[in-house]
Specification:
eight-stranded mixed sheet, six-stranded mixed sheet
Length: 695
C-alpha cells in the first residue's frame, strides 16, 4: 500500500493545511444502515451454496442429488412461510430498536465474546513487519538492546502520530466513506480491552478524554508490567526521543529485576479459567484493580522481548529442506519471527492477550503486532501497522541511549513513581494460588502452541499484476487456487469443504464482515476439470472464468449487505427457547419427512456442514511492508489462511494442527504452489486473446 521511506512526509497520509481547511467546509458523510436481507433471496442463495456439498454426498451415499435437494427446497419453503417468516419480522423489529444495526448491536460481538477457547492461536491474529533499513541486529545474550528500544520507541510514536492525525481529521476525514469506516474502526483498538467473564466476556468502554490513564501505553518487559506516559497534561503527544528515554528507563528497571511473575500467561488461558483467576487476583488487594484498569484503559500495549526466538533444530531442518521454501528470505528466520509474534513458550508470559493491539519487538529489532479480534477486524490494525513501519528509524535517533543494567543518575527510584509520572511500575500483588495458576496456565498455553503447525509461504513466481493481466481478480484467483489445493490434499474423503472468506461491509454504518462461501457449483466443476486429463485447456479455462464470475458476484453481494451467513445467524438467534429446543433436538435432526414448520432448515446436518469452515481464509493488503501474517485454524482438521497479494509476489500465512492426521501446513503449502503454477500454465497456454474474448 505504501512505499518505504526514510523520514519523508508520507503522501498517502499527509494533507496540506489548505486541504484540511477545505474539509471543515464539507459535511461528514453519512453511511447507510446495514439492511436486513430479503428472506426469500437468502434462502435461494443458501440452497445454491448447498449444491456442491449435495453433489458430493450423492457420490458418497448413493442418494440421488435431486431427491436430497428437493428435501432442502421443501424445508426452505416451509421456513419462509412458517417460523422463518416470524423470525424475519422479529429481526426487523430488533433492527428498528437498535441504535446502529440489527447485527453488530446484538449478535456479532457476542459470537466472539462467548467463545471460551484461549485467545492465543484462536481469536488473536498476528502480523510481522519487514525489517527496518538498518536490518536486524542479532543479540548474542538475553536482554534488551539499544536498537530494540530505538525501533520500539519510533514505532510507538508513529502509531500515536497516526491516531492524532485521525483525531484532527488530517487523514481519513469523515467526509469520505473510507474515512468514516476507518475512524469508527480504529478507535475500537485504542484505550479498550477484552475482559474475561464467566460464560461470556465483555469489552471495556473507552475512558473519558480527560482520564489520565488514557494517556499511557502499557509496557511489558521480563513479565513485569509498566505504564508509560506518551501525552503531556495538555494532551500533546511527546516527542519520540522522550518515549525512547522513558522506554529505556523501563528496560533498565526490568533488566535489574530479572523475570517477574507470569501474570501474562493467565490471559492466554481458557476464558472461564482466566475469569476465575482474574477475579481472585483483583480480590487480593485494591492495588490489583488499579493495575488492571491501567492496562484496560491504556492506549495499547508494547512488549519488549528479552530473547530473539530461534526454531528448534528439527523445525529448522524441515524448513531448510522444504521444496517450497522462500528463495529471497530465509524460511527459518521467517517462521521464527512469525512464531515469536504469535507467541512461543519463552515469551507467552510476556504478553497480555486481551488488548486489541500489542506492538512486539525483540532484541534484534524484529517487530510485529498481535491483537485480540473482537473489537475490529485485522485490516484495521494492519493499516495502522503499515503507517508505523513505512517510515524507517532515523539514522541518528537515540544512538547513544543507555540500556545496560546500570541505572542512569537521572533515573528516579522506581518504587516512588506513581500514576501521573512519566512511567511507573504496575506490580501485581500475588499469593501462592495466583503463582501456581500462572505455572499451570503457562503449561496449558504451551500445549496449545506446541500443536500449532504455522508457517509463511512466499510464492514468488508471480503476483497480482500478472493475474490482472490475464483478466482475473487476484483475490478470486487465490481463492480458487486454495480450492484446488484442498482437493489435491484430500483425494479420498471430504474432497471439497465449506470455505469461509471474509468480506468487509464497510459501506455501512458500523459494518464489519460477511461471509463469502467460496465453494460453489462452478468452483467445484472447475476443480474437477483441472484434474480431468481428457478435458481441453480451453474448456478448463472457460470453467475458470465461470467460477471467477460466480465468486465475483458472491463477493459483491456480501459487501453490499446481501450475504447469507449473518442473516441466517440472526434468524436463528430470533428463535424462542421453545423453538430453539427443536433445533437442538436429536430426534428432529434426522427427520426427512418435515413437520411443516421449516425448523428442519436448521436441524439438517448439512446446515452445520455448510458452515464448518475447514478452510477459513482472509486477504489483507498487498503486504509490501509485512513479512507475513496469520490466524488460527477454525477447525481442528482445517486451515487458517491469511494472504497478501502483492504486485509480484503472494504471501500466505498458514496455520493448522499437528495433532490432526488430515492436515499438514507443509503439504498444503506445496499444494498451493502446485495449484498456482498449474493455473499459470493454463492461462498462458490458452493465451491472452482467448482471455479478452471472455471479458
Amino acid at each position: 500500500m505504501f512505499a518505504r521511506t526514510r523520514n519523508r512526509p508520507i503522501r498517502n497520509f499527509c494533507m496540506s493545511r489548505h486541504a484540511n481547511s477545505h474539509l471543515e467546509q464539507r459535511k461528514p458523510v453519512q453511511l447507510p444502515r446495514l439492511p436486513v436481507p430479503d428472506l426469500s433471496k437468502t434462502l435461494t442463495k443458501y440452497l445454491a451454496s448447498l449444491e456442491p456439498l449435495l453433489q458430493e454426498e450423492s457420490l458418497r451415499t448413493g442418494v440421488p442429488y435431486a431427491q436430497a435437494y428437493a428435501f432442502r427446497a421443501k424445508w426452505a419453503e416451509e421456513f419462509s412461510h412458517g417460523v422463518g417468516k416470524v423470525c424475519q419480522e422479529r429481526l426487523k423489529a430488533l433492527d428498528r430498536a437498535s441504535p446502529n444495526n440489527w447485527l453488530d448491536d446484538n449478535f456479532w460481538l457476542k459470537s466472539y465474546l462467548d467463545w471460551r477457547a484461549p485467545l492465543v492461536l484462536n481469536s488473536n491474529w498476528w502480523m510481522i513487519f519487514c525489517d527496518d533499513q538498518h536490518g536486524s541486529v542479532p543479540s548474542a545474550e538475553p536482554g534488551f538492546t539499544n536498537w530494540q528500544l530505538r525501533r520500539t520507541a519510533w514505532l510507538t510514536h508513529r502509531i500515536l502520530e497516526l491516531k492524532d492525525k485521525i483525531d484532527n481529521q488530517e487523514v481519513y476525514p469523515d467526509t469520505s466513506r473510507t474515512g468514516i469506516w476507518f475512524r469508527e474502526s480504529v478507535y475500537k483498538i485504542f484505550n479498550v480491552c477484552r475482559i474475561p467473564r464467566q460464560i461470556s466476556d465483555t469489552l471495556s468502554s473507552p475512558p473519558p478524554p480527560d482520564d489520565i490513564l488514557s494517556q499511557y501505553v502499557t509496557v511489558i518487559a521480563n513479565n513485569w508490567f509498566y505504564a508509560l506516559r506518551v501525552y503531556t497534561r495538555r494532551f500533546e503527544l511527546i516527542p519520540a526521543s522522550e518515549i525512547l528515554e522513558r522506554m529505556a528507563a523501563i528496560a533498565r528497571d526490568a533488566f535489574v529485576r530479572g523475570q517477574g511473575p507470569m501474570i501474562g500467561a493467565l490471559s492466554a488461558d481458557d476464558r472461564d479459567i482466566w475469569a476465575k483467576n482474574l477475579s481472585h487476583l483483583l480480590s487480593l488487594n485494591p492495588q490489583n484493580e488499579k493495575i488492571h484498569q491501567a492496562i484496560v484503559r491504556s492506549l495499547f500495549s508494547v512488549t519488549l522481548d528479552s530473547q530473539t526466538h530461534a526454531l528448534s533444530e528439527s523445525e529448522a531442518k524441515s524448513r531448510s529442506t522444504s521444496p517450497v521454501a522462500s528463495t529471497s528470505q530465509s524460511q527459518v528466520s521467517l517462521d521464527a519471527h512469525l512464531h515469536s509474534v504469535r507467541s512461543v513458550p519463552s515469551n507467552v508470559s510476556n504478553r497480555f492477550f486481551d488488548k486489541p493491539i500489542t506492538l512486539i519487538v525483540d532484541p534484534s529489532g524484529q517487530a510485529g503486532v498481535m491483537g485480540e479480534h473482537s473489537p475490529c477486524d485485522a485490516l484495521v490494525p494492519s493499516m495502522v501497522g503499515e503507517y508505523a513501519v513505512v517510515q524507517c528509524v532515523p539514522d541518528d535517533f537515540g544512538v547513544d541511549t543507555n540500556v545496560n543494567a546500570q541505572a542512569e543518575a537521572k533515573d528516579v527510584d522506581p518504587q516512588t513513581r506513581t500514576e501521573g509520572d512519566d512511567w511507573y511500575r504496575l506490580d501485581w500483588i500475588t499469593d501462592s494460588h495466583v503463582l501456581s495458576e500462572c505455572v499451570e496456565a503457562k503449561k496449558r498455553a504451551e500445549l496449545v502452541i506446541a500443536d500449532s503447525d504455522n508457517s509463511v509461504l512466499w510464492f514468488e513466481d508471480y503476483g497480482g499484476d500478472w493475474i490482472k493481466s490475464v483478466g482475473l481478480s487476484p483475490d478470486v484467483f487465490i481463492q480458487l487456487a486454495m480450492q484446488l489445493a484442498w482437493f489435491r490434499t484430500h483425494p479420498n474423503e471430504n474432497r471439497f469443504t465449506a470455505t469461509y472468506e471474509t468480506a468487509l461491509t464497510r459501506l455501512f454504518h458500523k459494518g464489519r464482515t460477511e461471509t463469502i462461501r467460496t465453494l460453489t457449483t462452478d468452483s467445484r466443476r472447475w476443480v474437477l476439470g483441472m484434474e480431468d486429463a481428457s478435458m481441453s485447456p480451453q474448456a478448463k479455462h472457460s470453467l475458470l472464468f465461470r467460477a471467477h464470475r460466480t465468486h465475483t458476484t458472491l463477493t459483491r453481494e456480501a459487501m453490499t449487505g446481501r450475504g447469507i451467513d449473518r442473516h441466517l445467524f440472526g434468524l436463528r438467534n430470533m428463535l424462542t427457547a421453545k423453538e430453539q429446543s427443536g433445533v437442538n433436538s436429536d430426534n428432529q435432526s434426522n427427520n426427512s419427512s418435515g413437520s411443516g414448520t421449516g425448523i428442519e432448515l436448521f436441524t439438517d446436518p448439512l446446515f452445520m456442514k455448510s458452515a464448518d469452515w475447514r478452510l477459513s481464509t482472509s486477504g489483507l493488503s498487498a503486504g509490501l511492508l509485512f513479512k507475513g501474517t496469520g490466524f488460527g485454524a477454525r477447525c481442528e482438521d482445517g486451515y487458517g489462511i491469511n494472504y497478501l497479494a502483492g504486485p509480484s509476489m503472494i504471501k500466505f500465512g498458514i496455520e493448522s494442527k499437528f495433532s490432526h492426521h488430515n492436515t499438514s501446513t507443509e503439504g498444503f503449502k506445496r499444494a498451493i504452489v502446485g495449484a498456482l503454477r498449474d493455473m499459470h500454465v493454463l492461462c498462458v497456454e490458452v493465451g491472452v486473446s482467448d482471455v479478452r474474448s471472455k471479458l
